[in-house]
Amino acid sequence: MFDSFVMLAGMRTGSNFLEANLNALPGVRCHGELFNPHFIGSKDCTALFGHDLTRREADPLGFLARVRAETRGLSGFRYFHDHDPRVLPAVMEDRRCAKIVLTRNPAESYVSLKIARETGQWKLTDATRLRAATVVFDAAEFEAHLEAAQAFQMQVMRGLQLSGQTAFYLDYEDLSEVEVLNGLARFLGVDGRLSAIDGTLKKQNPQPIRDKVANPDEMAASLARLDRFNLSRTPNFEPRRGAGVPGFVAGGPLLYMPVRGGPEGAVRRWLEGFGGPLAEEFSQKTLRQWKKAHPGHRSFTVLRHPLARAHAGFRDQILTGRLPEIRQALNRIHNLDLPPPDAAGAMEAAAFREAFLGFLRFLRLNLSGQTGMRVSAHFASQGNVLQGMAQIQVPDLVVREERMGEALAYLAAEAGCEAPPVAPEADAGPHPLASIWGRDLEDAAREAYARDYATFGFGCWRA
Hints:
five-stranded parallel beta sheet, five-stranded mixed beta sheet, 18 helices, 10% strand, elongated
């Protein structure tokens, strides 16, 4: 059973109308936009239940508890994406708080919002007082509106998923059906039912959307250009990664946040050039202590081309047997026929190349969640690794391996110290990438690491 509710909606989605119908149900009270930054509950109201804006700002959850305690029956409010962000996590985690998700065609809500701003009319109770306006559709403005609406809906969906809850979903068009609203009453667990839709509020601007804008053809062209179904999106089924704090390394005032499979050896040797032992094996506590002890510190990571990174990882981690579980799976399930680790150095170039190509094909399956094997940090997409780091700290600088010398010299200067020279890692092992490179390897790497190629703008690898 629920003892409260929240309406998760947006401006011009019909939330006023839904609130009026909820308040027509016996035992239900919706208090409006309790956490709007500019008012409390409704426009121009700046105090409610003994809380003014200042007191609400100081303790929003205390204010919410007060509202619920002093409301007879089922208490609720409307929450939009730009309301107090401290409130949403609390209500999403509260299983006794019912979630009502109200949406509307974003083009309709955008045009309606423009008209409301133009006319100053946000509610209509008397149709004879309708203020009409024709507005200009602005493509960039609409895309920002759409992005905010979609981001909020994704945030709501993820909150429901993580807490194992469901919501009652309504579209703007559903609000005209009394049967649907009574279904909502059942969902909320209240006994009251509506015999008819509340008629207090009138629909504003009911004409087709093309008649509401001054540039309908431009609007149509702009909407056609949008990827409505997100067809260009590269799906990401990789598991989320942690920040990897124990792998961080510090030398002088610089903190290296390594992406496994990158030029870690070269960077460590460069950091040693600042003198003194390297600080490593951090915990979050010791990392905070290091930062306090090094005011003016800078942090960085180094990206490697996906094909070169996969090649180095295959040679250093798979053929050597350092990742035995993945190596065994490659032999038993993916038929790579890898030699024993002590014989791997004697592989002929053709056999090495064929095995490496098979490994790249395995990575495509592995990173898309189509194998039973874990995703090793040495082969996780670099974008995913950086997202994990960002949970603790975003690097000051993200360096490309090929520009490492000048980029690290700049970073050292930013930290107020003179940089030692950078000695890049040489591909001196058996069968360097330059000796086996081909379009088939490049294409296989691009399929495995499509998101990294797109995110970081990697082009074709060349020796």
